[in-house]
Every structure is written in structure tokens, then in C-alpha cells.
């Protein structure tokens, strides 16, 4: 007998709370992948479940099961723009052979790619940011539409996945379903052969786990199947997965997922904090403290990678006036709510130096400050204060109509007649 249907927003949490995550996982034999998937679709989250597939080496097995349960289920493929040609061909092969009629390609935001990876080589030096822009950020708005989603992850693939269950409850109260959790590599091969499933064109060449072309290599005999992913780097996951051990990736938390507010939304932000002692000639996507920039000016100017500049109270932005065009972003720090020196720095950038790049506020950024910040030229905000985040999202910031200190040439200070105002 099936479980009662609940409202999608409450379904995942209430069902797993009632049954218990262990009880739900205990309902199925370890190898009953088809049963897990069928129950998830028909009883756990009917009409509120999607498939996320890499269309990689093992994807045919899960997608074959999807075709048996419901070939009209939504299937999402992250088209990062970095896949092997063979993978893109494989997508069409499986769609055609399995009769999958609801496959969608998810593309990264072209503005994010243009801004943060204009040369297409971010994967070489910062694969985490590359994955964030091309995978995590595009996928989140899709999965947020559903009460849960299905993955093809398996325990055997890495030691980190060794505790993977059939059902997971994420920190945002959605269900992640892993029908193949207990399948071994031999099980996958056996299933593929038993059902005469098409093999990924690169599998026979030694690619056992297939992702983006630049970050995937051939796996040697005896190696971990995912050893060819991000080889030589301290990286094992792209960031879109989480299991209950917390070892694969951190649970998704709204407060951590997006902190950069720009153009009316919280967006991807590959900029990271400057680390003391970092190589000026190799730095990228960091806000360089002004004293560090001045001490290593030649090296930073010769550095071809995107950089930002960090200004803290006491810094003189005038010292970098001639080089401001070098920076894609200027971050101005507010160490406390009451420290207003950052407003003057922003006004200098806009009014005197005509800086046209991103001016972001960082530090103690609260909702009452934001109208002042916008007046002074800030066009980006790094916000971690939850009430302020909510106020931005709900568009309920305080309004300002009276000004004692005007900005630019359009505001009229309180008590001043417009024709008496001095224009400097």
C-alpha cells in the first residue's frame, strides 16, 4: 500500500520523518534497484521527482530502468560545454533506443562563463570554480523545482561513497534517490550485457568514469574507477552531491550557497579570499589587498588572469587610481555597521575615477545600509546576514527620499533650494 500524498514542499521531510530514513532504506534488498526507483516514483514523490544523468559510462543502466518505470520522467543532462563529442552522441543514442521523451540539456549561464571563464581554461587552475559555474549553479534552480531527484551514484566508485544509501534526506528537506547504490562495477557490466545496452563510445578505450573532457583521463587496470576524474588534483566530486556522512560534499544551505547579490539575485561568485603568501603572478579570482598590490604592482599587472582589489578602512584608493582598469571588481570592506568610510571610497571610484567595473560591499552588510550603498555606487553585495538576505529576496528594503548629504548632481539636500545648490 502506498504512502499518502503530501504537498510537495512538505512531502520529503514528513514522509521520512514518519518512516525514518533507516526504515525506508530497509524496505528494499540491496540489489533491488528497479524496486527502489519504482517505489520512489509511484509512492514517495509521485510527479515530483527528476533524474539527473551524466550520460557517462554507467548511465545506460539507470536510464534503462527509468524507461521501464516511466519514459516520460524528466531527465536532466548538464551540458557544460566541455563534454567529449562521444558523450553528446551517446545522449542521442540513449534517447532514441530507450524512448526517453523528456530529456533536457542544462547549460551554464553565458554571462557567468563570459565573466569568469572568458578563455575557457578555468578548469586548468580552479576546477572547483569551473564546476560551480558549469554544473552546480545551473543545476540548483532545476532541482529546486522538485521534491527529490535520482542519481546514478554507487558505493564502489570511491571510498567517500562507501556509505551511500538508497535514500538520502538533504539538509533542505528533499530526497535524493540512489537506486544503484549497491551495484558493483561487475553488476553494472552484467546488467548492460543482459539487456544488450549500448556502451559509451569511450568506455572500451579505458574511460571508466566520464565527465568533462579536460578533467577526464583513462583509468589503469586496478585503479579506482573514478581515478581518471581530476587526476592529480585534490578533488573527487563536482559539488552537486551530498550523502548523509557529509564526506562527499557539504549539505546545501541557502545561506552558504549564494552570498553575492547582483542584478537582483544571488549569483555565482568564483572570487575567493586572498591567501597570504600567494604568488602574485599566478593569482586569479581573488581580491588582492591594496598594500599587497602596491608592493607587487609589476607582477600583478603582468598577471593575465581576472583579479579584484580589496580596500579596507584606512586604505587610500587614490594610490591605485592609474591601475583601476586592471581590476574586474573592487571590494570595499565594512568592518562594522557603524563604519561609513567605505561609502566615500565608492563615491571616489564612481564620481572622480569613473570606474565602471563591479563595486562590491563586503563585511558587515545589513539591510539598512543597502540604500546608502546603492546611492554611492555599489552594484554588488556580499551578504551573509540572513534577515538581510530575506529582505533582498523579498524586495522590502527601506526607502530613502530625504538626503542631508547629496550624491552626484541629481539629489537635493534637505532644506536647500535647487537653484542655490553649488555644482562643483
UniProtKB/TrEMBL annotation:
Q: Which SUPFAM superfamilies does the UniProt entry name for this protein? A: Adenine nucleotide alpha hydrolases-like
Q: What is this protein called?
A: Adenosine 5'-phosphosulfate reductase
Single Gene Ontology BP term?
Answer: sulfate assimilation, phosphoadenylyl sulfate reduction by phosphoadenylyl-sulfate reductase (thioredoxin)
Similarity comment? Belongs to the PAPS reductase family. CysH subfamily.
Instruction: List required co-factors.
Output: [4Fe-4S] cluster
Cofactor comment: Binds 1 [4Fe-4S] cluster per subunit.
Known catalytic reactions: [thioredoxin]-disulfide + sulfite + AMP + 2 H(+) = adenosine 5'-phosphosulfate + [thioredoxin]-dithiol
Where in the cell? Answer: Cytoplasm
Active site, renumbered: 238 (nucleophile)
The UniProt keywords, alphabetically, are:
Cytoplasm, Iron, Iron-sulfur, Metal-binding, Oxidoreductase
Q: Which GO cellular component does the record give, naming just one?
A: cytoplasm
Q: Look up the EC number in the record and give it.
A: 1.8.4.10
The pathway where this protein functions is: Sulfur metabolism; hydrogen sulfide biosynthesis; sulfite from sulfate
According to its UniProt record, where is this protein mainly located? cytoplasm
The residue ranges of the Phosphoadenosine phosphosulphate reductase domain are 49-217
- Translocase is among the record's keywords: no
Protein's organism? Devosia lucknowensis
Binding of [4Fe-4S] cluster occurs at: 130-131, 212, 215
- The answer, when asked if Secreted is one of the entry's keywords, is no
What is the top EC class of this enzyme, as a single word?
oxidoreductase
List the GO molecular function terms.
Answer: 4 iron, 4 sulfur cluster binding; adenylyl-sulfate reductase (thioredoxin) activity; metal ion binding; phosphoadenylyl-sulfate reductase (thioredoxin) activity
The record's function comment reads:
Catalyzes the formation of sulfite from adenosine 5'-phosphosulfate (APS) using thioredoxin as an electron donor.
Amino acid at each position: 500500500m502506498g504512502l499518502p500524498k503530501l504537498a510537495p514542499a512538505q512531502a520529503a521531510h514528513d514522509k521520512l520523518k514518519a518512516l525514518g530514513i533507516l526504515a525506508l532504506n530497509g524496505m528494499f534488498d540491496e540489489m533491488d534497484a528497479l524496486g527502489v526507483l519504482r517505489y520512489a516514483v509511484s509512492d514517495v514523490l509521485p510527479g515530483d521527482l527528476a533524474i539527473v544523468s551524466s550520460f557517462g559510462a554507467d548511465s545506460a543502466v539507470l536510464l534503462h530502468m527509468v524507461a521501464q518505470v516511466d519514459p516520460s520522467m524528466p531527465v536532466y543532462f548538464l551540458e557544460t560545454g566541455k563534454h567529449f563529442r562521444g558523450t553528446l552522441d551517446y545522449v542521442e543514442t540513449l534517447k532514441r533506443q530507450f524512448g526517453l521523451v523528456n530529456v533536457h540539456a542544462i547549460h551554464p549561464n553565458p554571462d557567468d562563463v563570459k565573466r569568469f571563464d572568458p578563455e575557457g581554461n578555468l578548469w586548468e587552475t580552479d576546477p572547483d570554480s569551473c564546476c560551480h559555474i558549469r554544473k552546480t549553479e545551473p543545476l540548483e534552480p532545476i532541482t529546486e523545482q522538485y521534491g527529490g531527484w535520482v542519481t546514478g551514484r554507487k558505493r564502489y566508485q570511491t571510498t567517500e561513497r562507501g556509505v551511500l544509501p538508497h535514500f538520502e534526506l538533504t539538509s533542505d528537506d528533499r530526497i535524493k534517490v540512489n537506486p544503484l547504490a549497491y551495484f558493483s562495477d561487475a553488476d553494472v557490466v552484467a546488467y548492460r550485457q543482459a539487456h544488450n545496452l549500448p556502451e559509451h563510445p569511450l568506455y572500451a578505450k579505458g574511460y571508466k568514469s566520464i565527465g568533462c573532457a579536460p578533467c577526464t583521463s583513462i583509468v589503469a587496470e586496478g585503479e579506482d574507477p573514478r581515478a581518471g576524474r581530476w587526476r592529480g588534483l585534490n578533488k573527487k566530486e563536482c559539488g552537486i552531491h551530498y550523502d548523509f556522512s557529509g564526506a562527499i560534499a557539504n549539505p546545501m544551505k541557502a545561506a552558504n550557497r549564494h552570498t553575492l547579490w547582483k542584478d537582483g539575485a544571488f549569483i555565482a561568485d568564483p572570487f575567493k579570499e586572498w591567501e597570504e603568501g600567494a604568488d602574485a603572478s599566478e593569482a586569479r579570482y581573488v581580491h588582492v589587498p591594496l598594500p599587497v598590490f602596491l608592493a607587487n604592482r609589476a607582477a600583478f599587472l603582468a598577471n593575465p588572469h581576472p583579479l579584484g582589489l580589496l580596500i579596507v578602512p584606512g586604505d587610500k584608493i587614490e594610490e591605485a587610481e592609474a591601475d583601476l582598469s586592471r581590476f574586474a571588481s573592487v571590494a570595499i570592506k565594512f568592518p562594522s555597521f557603524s563604519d561609513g568610510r567605505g561609502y566615500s571610497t565608492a563615491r571616489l571610484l564612481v564620481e572622480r575615477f569613473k570606474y565602471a567595473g563591479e563595486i562590491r560591499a563586503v563585511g558587515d552588510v545589513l539591510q539598512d545600509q543597502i540604500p546608502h550603498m546603492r546611492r554611492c555606487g555599489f552594484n554588488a553585495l556580499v551578504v551573509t546576514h540572513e534577515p538581510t538576505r530575506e529582505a533582498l529576496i523579498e524586495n522590502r528594503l527601506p526607502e530613502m527620499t530625504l538626503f542631508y548629504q547629496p550624491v552626484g548632481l541629481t539629489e537635493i539636500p534637505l532644506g536647500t533650494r535647487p537653484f542655490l545648490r553649488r555644482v562643483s
